[in-house]
Every structure is written in C-alpha cells, then in structure tokens.
Amino acid sequence: LFRLMDGFRRNDPVSLQKDILDHVEFTVARSRFNFDDFEAYQALSHSIRDRLIERWHDTQQYFKRKDPKRLYFLSLEFLMGRSLSNSVINLGIRDNCADALNQLGFEFEVVAEQEGDGALGNGGLARLSACQMDSLATMDFPAWGYGLRYQYGLFRQVIFDGFQYEQPDYWLNFGNPWEIERVHVSYAVKFYGNVEEELLNGEKCKVWVPGEMVEAVAYDNPIPGYGTRNTINLRLWAAKPSDQHDMESFNTGDYINAVINRQGAETISSVLYPDDRSYQGKELRLKQQYFFVSASLQDIIRRFKDSHSNFDEFPDKVALQLNDTHPSLAIPEVMRILVDEEHLEWSRAWGIVCKLFSLTSHTVLPEGLEKVPVDLLGSLLPRHLQIIYDINFFFMEDLKKHFGLDYDRLSRMSIVEEGAVKSIRMANLSIVCCHTVNGVSRVHLELLKTRVFKDFYELWPQKFQFKTNGVTQRRWIVVSNPSLCSLISKWLGTEAWIRDVDLLLGLREHAANADLQQEWNMVRRVNKMRLAEYIETMSGIKVSPDAMFDVQTKRIHEYKRQLLNLLGIIHRYDCIKNMNMNERRKVVPRVCIIGGKAAPGYEIAKKIIKLCHAVGEKINNDSDVGDLLKLVFIPDYNVSVAELVIPGSDLSQHISTAGHEPSGTGSMKFLMNGCLLLATADGSTIEIIEEIGEDNMFTFGAKVHEVPALREKGSALTAPLQFARVVRMVRDGYFGFKDYFKSLCDALDGNGDFYLLGHDFGSYLEAQAEADKAFVDREKWTRMSILSTAGSGRFSSDRTIGEYAEKTWGIEPCRCPF
Ligand code: 26Y
Fold first, then answer.
1. 367: which DSSP letter?
2. Rounded to the nearest 5°, which phi and psi values hold at 100?
3. Does pLDDT of 2 surpass 60?
4. Which of 360, 472, 665, 718 is catalytic?
5. This protein's superkingdom (predicted)?
6. What is the residue-wise DSSP string for 65-118?
C-alpha cells in the first residue's frame, strides 16, 4: 500500500543522491569517495533503472488485469541511441538528477555523454521503430516491441585517408544498465531436421523433428512514456546454447569439442547485417529471422494462454505488426503452431491468421524485396516451406477464380518465384496474409499501388493504406535541443506540446515577433557553436558560426544523391575561384556538412565518401576561398551525433530522385529544430511542403510522375553546361584519384544518369541560390525557421501511432492509474 500511494523510490535530489551513492558502492563497486564520470553514469543509470522497473511492473500488472488487446511490434532493427537523458526526461526528473549530481561534484551533460549508442539497426526503418516505441508508451498503448539483441550493432565508421573502414561495434563491452536479463524467460528454437507424419486420434498430422535447437533468452528494455506512469517493454532475444538434445555430443567422449561447438549457437544473435539495400539469401540472416520470430511468438502465445483457451479470440487480443517483411516468417510459424501443435483445422487457423497481421513497407527498390531460395528455406525450416506451399496453393486457386487463367498474372503474384533460383517472395507472402499493407507516406502508397504491388492492389484495394511517418518530439526537441524546448514552452505558455504536439502551431502567430526572433537566433547560435566545436575536434577544421551550416546526413545511397550535393559544392568552389575580390565579398559563407555510413559492400557509396574527402581537402586548404566555403565530413553518424548536428543546422538537404525515398524522417527532425529544408518533392517532403508552404522551403527537381519519361530520354539534352564542367573536373583528376573516381563519372553520362543528377542540376543550383538570398535577410530567415518548427507537429510519431492504433491495430489506451 505504501508503494501504491507514495512510489517506492523517491525522486527528490537527496533521495536520488543517496541511490546514486549506493549504486556507486554496491553495483559499480567503487568507493563513494572516489569515482569518475563514467562510474557516475553507471550509478545514475542504475538508479533510473530501478525507477523504470517499478513503473514497468505496475504497467505490466495493470495490463494483465485489464487484458486489453495488445500490439506486438516485430522488428529486426531498433536504433535506440542513448537512454539516460531520454529516460530522466520522460520520468520528469531531469532537473532533480542534475541537482543530485551537482552536489556530488558532477555535471549532468558530461555524465550523459559517457553513454554509448544502442545502434541495433541500419537507418530510417530502425530509428522509426525507436520513435514509435516512445509514442506507444507516451500514449498509453498496451504494446510490446520485440527484436534481436545483437552483440555487435551497426559497424563504427572510421575514416582513414578519406576512405571508410568498418570496425566492430561491441556495444556491450562496458555493460548495459538499461536491460534486464530474464534468465527464466527463455524458449527453445528449432532448426533443420525433417517432417514426419503421425496419427493423432485417427487423423494424420505433421510433426517437425528438428536437427538443432538453440535457446532464446529475453532481455527486457523498459520504455518509459512521457507524462504517464506507463512503461512498456522492448524485449530483445539473445541466442544461447540449448541444453536439450545435447546428450549425444557429450557422450562421444570429446568433451572439449562438444563445449566449443555449443558456442556456435551464440552467433545467431551476434551481428546486425549492415545493409539496407539488397537482400542476399544468407543462411545466417534467415536463421536470425526465424530465431526472432519463433521466440517472440512462443512468448506471445504463452501470455495469451495465461488467460484464454480459445484461439478464435486470439485476434481480439493480439495485433501483430510486421516492420517490413523481415519478420514475415511469423506467418507460417503461427500457421504451424495452430495446425500442428494446437491441432486446429487449416481453414480455421487461416481465418485467425488473416485477422492478426499488418505490414508496413519501407522500400520501393526491387532489390530491397526479400526472396529466400527454396533450397535454403527447405533445409533450415522444412515444415515452414510446406506450409508456404500450401498457402500458395489455396491463394492460386482463389486467383484463378478471380482472374481466370491469366498465367502471367498468376506467376507475378505467386508466393513462389520460378526461375534460375526458385525462391519464396516474402512480400507476396505478407500481402496475402496481412489484413493491411501500409505505405510510409502518401506518395509511397501511390508507388506501391501503381508499381511495386500493382497486381495485389487490383485484387485487394481495401488492404492498401498509408500512415505518413513521424518522429518523436521528446527525443528530437526536448532531449536534443533543451534550450529550444524552453523557448517554445515560454512562448506557448505551456509545456503541453510535448504530449500534444499540435500546440506547436501556436508559434505561428509569433513568427514575426522581434523578441522571439532574437531569442530564437540566440538559441540557434549557441547550438551552431557547439557543432562548430565538435567539427573542430573531429576533423581539425575551424568553421565560423557566421556561415550558413548546410547539412546532409543520412545513409549514403545513390538515390539520396550525396553526389548531387558534392557536384553543387564543386560548382560553388569553381565560381568563387573565378570571382574578383569585389564579387567574393558578396558570397554568402557556407559550411557544407556531409555525414553517413555506406554499406560495407556498396562500392559506389564508398567512392562518394572518398570524393567528399578529396573535394574537402582541396577547398579547405585553398586560401582564395577561406571562410567562404568549407566542406566537412562527419564520421560515424549515429543517433547521438544526430542529436548534436540537427539543432546546429541552418539548411538541410533531402534531395533524393523523386519516387525513391519512401518517406524520409531526417527531414522531420530538422524541421522540428527550425532548420530550413532544401528538398525534392519526394516521400514525406511532399507533405511537408503542403503543411508549411512552398515559400517556407527551397524545392527543386523533377516530380515523381516525370521521372520515367526523363529516364527514357536520358539527361544528356537537359543537363546544363555547368554540370558537364564539374563532372569533367572530377574526371580529369582535379581532386586527385582520377582512376578511382572514373566509374562515378561514367555513371553520370547522358544516358546512364539513372538518378537524373544532370537533369536536376540546374534547378538545384537555383534553389541553392534562393537559400543564399534568404539567409542574408535575417528577419525573413528567422521567420521561416520559426514557421518550420510551428508546422512540424503533423510529423510527430504521436500522430502516426494514433492512426495505426485506430485504423490498423484496433487497440486503445490503457493507462496505469497510479
Ligand atoms: C532486407 C534488407 C536488405 C533490408 C534491411 C533494411 C532492406 C531494407 C532495410 C531498411 C530500409 C529502410 O530503412 N527504409 C527507410 O525506412 C524509413 C522509415 O519508414 C523511410 O523514412 C525511408 O524513406 C526508407 O528508406
């Protein structure tokens, strides 16, 4: 009772201080009279973890008692970043923690900097999962996230001589106070073997006799909501050797080798695949996917069975969300459990499965669609392959009824792809079984309907929906830009926008107010100085905060066109070189900042990184140019680097070839922080333009519907002369490495310019010139900046999650009352 009324752990600075010192002494095992910043981080984190665990228990008990329909969010990737600041802010105890640390002689910011990044994902899709978890918790939804606890997260990018090198990210080296190991929550996951038939009550049924077993152990990561006691769970699975079926190997007498072989099991969850571009049918990747799916479903079904016995109620209590097709083996797995283990009839099981699943697609590239070779699937998961064949058989029968014997269509829509390598199309499997297929922006849905999944749209138009992505303002304003956060609250007269983000619109009426403008610029200036300092420490390059900070940070992809940006920078450099002193005085100084990782096997992306360094080397050391132009590459871009870069940017670039970026979420983070966008009309920027108005940003380039015809024509005719000139500079070795850059230049030749850099170059330069013009008009620029933040509310993940909850998952808030 004491606990219900009072809270077990107190949150005043003195109690926090006591807890911190206790953890210094008993958890970190250091003297309370002598500990450093890192140990202070560990002790504070453990104190916060205690508080999270209390709330976690209360929330989970409340969910259990109320038994609402739950959402299970299945994703192979989560990019959580750091947890300390986010947790104390969501718990509402940041200032108290800072006071407590202060009295012990530590500074909160310095202590928080000690934390490493949780980087269990590649890019957009993975960070989106993290933002959505924050919204699910804050909005009190009864949700669980499931994922894999990779021992090695996304590689660390190291730049040496301008080239990218990949280093392992062994993020657990210094311990992870944010997870709770649940040694007793573990499940056996089966692989290989064969399928046998057995008689059960006179009926034939299939039994999968596995050839290998691995244990999945749960690690729980509490996700606290903001302004609520609700704390939901992100459960990540780690692979451990299984005790079952192991007697044989130990009886052969080769004890040492038997022990060593057991360690092999752990490789399943050892490393994240660092490619977000093309799927390769690798056995380990497939093993990861099934391992994750099997453990999660055993856990979900166990929880369901705790209070239910009839599987017909399963879809009333459970919604399963597939984050792209990566977890789509969950579909045959649920069928297998219902049919083989629970002995439901096929058609009854199928009826249940069809009400459970929803899919969100995050790609438009055909290479991104997963296709698993049948041989691989059949050897690793023999029973699942049979089930997939059966699902396909019934689906093909239905199709014939619907469309007649249109064999072209049948073969395009089949889950099984015949061809040199017979494969299972995971997207087709998912669409057949999911009640809803979501795109991540309006235009993305259009592309899914008219290109990628056209046949399926014609069959099931009602399945196809979109929910424009969003990002959480808690992480992307409150945590990463505290001074802007205070300023917003001051001018809105409330902090309520942190939960109710539409209130940001209230800033619109103050956008021209001179006092707000002055305070706004002061906050932005300090953020720029912080970024300038970081740049100098990382690269030794001194940049002036008076210059416009022009930023493009995201994964390196041809379609994202970092190369267009670089060619634009070369053009700017070329112009400055050809100016006289008088003309140079009119140039608006720029600091161009590029950051992002290239997939290790993506040669062209790696060349783009090298080109950035080569061009930077030349420009930054040219005394003719001085502070008028700088080019810096920020290495190892990740969530915590983003938290520093985004608030310090003036202009940010989102310049993909139209029709290639499903949504893009970086743009939303920059927008929230009052950074102006320079963008093509692609993905979510189309909707951002609608929300804040075309006159509030700088847009250029071909439109989605123009791209196919332009490609046909080739851009040889439309590319401006300046384009040929800058490409030639690279080709002729003006920046060195002539041979190495040759293939980059070849790809831009007239007919080969697939991403239309040549076509868009002219309008890109015009948009850049517009940005220069606006930047020198301080009043105008600041107004645009305030209006950007004001209009960013629609791009909060709170809005996205609200839409999913209502239209796709059918779940309702369940708020823990104490
Ligand atoms: C199968 C494997 C090769 C693979 C692994 C990861 C394929 C794709 C991915 C990740 C895709 C991804 O991150 N897509 C991005 O999702 C964001 C969130 O919806 C979008 O904003 C962004 O436009 C899209 O590229």
1. G
2. -60, -45
3. no
4. 665
5. Eukaryota
6. HH---EEEEE-S-EEEE--HHHHHHHHT-HHHHHHHHHHTT--HHHHHTTPPPE
User: Which residue type is seen at 744?
Assistant: L
The pLDDT assigned to 720 comes to 94
pLDDT at 451 over 50: yes
Whether 449 sits among the annotated catalytic residues: the reply is: no
Mutational test site, ligand 1, from 128, 271, 276, max ligand atoms within 8 Å of CB? 276
User: What percent of the chain is predicted at pLDDT more than 90?
Assistant: 93
How sure is the predictor about 281, in pLDDT bands with cuts at 50, 70 and 90? Answer: confident
Greatest alpha-carbon span in the chain: 96
DSSP per residue over 21-41, as a string?
HHHHHHTS---TTS--HHHHH
User: Where is 424: in which H helix or E strand?
Assistant: strand 423-425
Mean pLDDT confidence for 74-98? 98
Q: How far is the CA of 594 from the centre of ligand 1 (A)?
A: 20
Distance from residue 363's CA to the centre of ligand 1 (Å): 6
Binding-site residues, ligand 1, Cβ < 6 A: 122-125, 128, 275-279, 362-363, 368, 370, 440, 469, 661-665, 683
Residues 537-566, mean pLDDT to the nearest whole number: 97
* H or E element, residue 767: helix 757-776
In the residue annotation, 660 being an active-site residue is answered as: no
Please give the Cα distance from 395 to 142 (Å, whole number): 33
Catalytic annotation on 348? no
Gap from CA of 126 to ligand 1 centroid (Å):
8
Q: Which two tokens stand for residue 746?
A: 């070849």
Confidence band, pLDDT 50/70/90 cuts, at residue 7: low
- Give the tens place of pLDDT for each residue, 254-274: 888 888 888 889 999 999 999
User: How buried is residue 142: exposed, middle or buried, by Cβ count under 10 Å (0-12/13-18/19+)?
Assistant: buried
128 C-alpha vs ligand 1 centroid, how far in Å? 10
Which listed residue (240, 371, 560, 572) is catalytic? 560
**Helices 84-91 and 124-138 sit at what angle, rounded to 10 degrees?**
20
Percent of all residues in the chain with a pLDDT value above 70, rounded to a whole number? 99
Q: Quickly list DSSP for 274-285.
A: --SS-----HHH
Ligand 1 binding pocket mutation candidate from 75, 363, 425 (most atoms within 8 A of CB):
363
pLDDT exceeds cutoff 60 at 3: no
At residue 1, the pLDDT reads: 44
Catalytic member of 425, 554, 571, 613? 554
